[in-house]
């Protein structure tokens, strides 16, 4: 399709994903109407790919800020030197997030959206998978949807998110859990802009409120299997200079560890979000830790 602002939106997945063609993100100023069109495409397709943009850090920050106030890089992990809002995603250090997750759901106010920029890309492997959790919810049999609507999950950073294999990875793990968080979120989140329902779970969701550990694992495994069905997943094959924008409120993502000891470096910038709400309007709440105001603006 061609939008009123003149760029093209080309679907690249049956249920998720589109490439945006004809937009130069390096421009010092993008018209408000253009940003509105891009946001509309994001809400529809959940993940957008911008090829060959070759942005620097300042350009990525400028583009991400068009969609709202930015978070700092991470609640516990250091940022890029001199860039407090940029998180290095560096596979060369043995830190590989090869589990399905939604970014930073262990705090009460996870990001609205994430941007990833390809800097060093291996010659093979190193793709990013992004899944549509709204499609997953619709795929559930009615009885499972009704059950999911009632459930709450506890999300935490204090678990084996990425098992350390090297000294650098062990240090990253120590930093990752240096401040512990446990937050209760609805298993079914209502998207604040579209009203869609999506399964809000992923790797940080470690238990179901009111259920035993074994019951929690079994239910989360069932729900998660719908998120990661192949028809709900987009595979982004990176080239240096590419930028990906995805809606963190209604997707999960995964970076397969399939590129051996080759280097891979992305930079991540995230847009501050709101407090998730369940189908009855009840908001997420902190169980352990603080409101993470050092990381993300706290809604009034």
Task: Give the tags.
globular, 300 residues, 21% helix, alpha+beta
Short structural summary:
This protein has 6 helices and 16 strands. The protein has helices at 32-45, 57-65, 133-139, 142-150, 167-176, 213-227; strands at residues 8-11, 18-21, 47-50, 87-90, 113-120, 128-132, 152-156, 182-186, 188-190, 197-199, 205-208, 233-236, 243-247, 251-254, 265-271, 285-288.
Describe the overall structure:
This protein is of the alpha+beta class. 21% of the residues lie in helices and 24% in strands. Strands 1-2-3-13-5-15-4 form a seven-stranded mixed beta sheet, with helices on one face. Strands 11-7-8-16 form a four-stranded antiparallel beta sheet. The protein starts with 7 loop residues before the first strand and ends in a 12-residue tail after the last strand. 41% of the residues are buried.
């Amino acid at each position: 399709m061609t939008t009123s602002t003149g760029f093209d939106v080309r679907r690249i997945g049956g249920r998720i994903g589109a490439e945006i063609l004809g937009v130069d993100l390096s421009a010092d100023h993008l018209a408000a109407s253009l940003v509105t069109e891009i946001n509309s495409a994001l809400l529809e397709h959940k993940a957008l790919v911008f090829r060959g943009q070759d942005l620097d850090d300042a350009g990525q920050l400028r583009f991400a800020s068009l969609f709202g106030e930015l978070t700092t890089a991470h609640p516990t992990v250091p940022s890029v030197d001199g860039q407090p809002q940029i998180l290095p995603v560096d596979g060369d250090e043995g830190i590989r997030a090869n589990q399905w997750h939604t970014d930073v759901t262990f705090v009460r106010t996870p990001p609205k959206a994430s941007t990833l920029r390809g800097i060093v890309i291996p010659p093979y492997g190193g793709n990013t998978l992004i899944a549509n959790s709204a499609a997953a919810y619709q795929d559930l049999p009615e009885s499972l949807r009704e059950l999911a609507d009632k459930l709450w999950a506890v999300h935490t950073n204090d678990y084996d998110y990425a098992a350390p294999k090297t000294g650098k990875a062990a240090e990253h793990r120590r930093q990752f859990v240096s401040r512990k968080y446990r937050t209760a979120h609805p298993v079914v989140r209502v998207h604040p802009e579209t009203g869609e329902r999506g399964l809000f779970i992923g790797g940080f969701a470690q238990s179901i409120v009111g259920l035993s550990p074994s019951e929690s694992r079994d239910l989360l495994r069932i729900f998660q299997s719908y998120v990661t069905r192949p028809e709900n997943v987009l595979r982004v094959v990176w080239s240096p200079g590419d930028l990906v924008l995805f809606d963190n409120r209604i997707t999960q993502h995964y970076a397969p560890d399939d590129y051996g000891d080759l280097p891979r470096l992305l930079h991540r910038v995230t847009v501050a979000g709101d407090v998730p709400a369940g189908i009855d309007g009840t908001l997420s709440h902190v169980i352990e830790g603080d409101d993470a105001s050092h990381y993300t603006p706290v809604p009034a």
